[in-house]
Specification:
By secondary structure, the chain is an alpha+beta fold. The chain has a single domain (about 15-100), classed as 2-Layer Sandwich (Alpha-Beta Plaits). About 30% of the residues lie in helices and about 35% in strands. It has helices at about 30-40, 70-75, 80-90, and strands at about 15-20, 45-55, 60-65, 90-100. β2 (about 45-55) and β3 form a beta hairpin. The protein is globular and about 40 Å long. The chain starts with 12 loop residues before the first strand and ends in a 9-residue tail after the last strand. This is ABM domain-containing protein. InterPro entries: ABM_dom (IPR007138), Dimeric_a/b-barrel (IPR011008), Jasmonate_Hydroxylase-like (IPR052936). Pfam families: ABM (PF03992).
């Protein structure tokens, strides 16, 4: 992942906010996470992803999708669904998922 945020896109598009606290059992998490990042990049309409984690363990991932079709393709991907199940069984103490339609977007970058 980049240290720079995902660029601002022309709205409308969708943001999926996945906020987590993970368990101590992270066996297989890194490999699965890498695979999910590879898979989501193949979805037509996937725009990018931002991720941050604080020292206390709260993680926030925001994925951006051009339209509902792209979001649906990702949500219903069978390999992604299997990873979600493993996450509930092993890797997450808690998580929330929010899907929002972005109606305004802009950015700034120092020259």
């Amino acid at each position: 992942m980049s240290d720079a945020p995902v660029e601002a896109f022309e709205p409308p598009y969708y943001a999926v906010v996945f906020t987590t606290v993970r368990t101590d059992d992270q066996n297989g998490y890194r490999e699965t996470n890498t695979r999910m990042e590879e898979l989501v990049r193949e979805v037509p309409g996937y725009l990018g992803m931002d991720h941050a984690q604080n020292p206390g363990g709260l993680g926030i991932t925001v994925a951006y999708f051009r339209d509902v079709d792209a979001l649906t393709q990702w949500r219903t991907n069978l390999e992604h669904r299997a990873a979600q199940q493993r996450g509930r069984e092993h890797w997450y103490d808690t998580y929330t998922l929010h899907v929002a339609k972005v109606e305004r977007s802009h950015g700034f970058k120092r020259s």
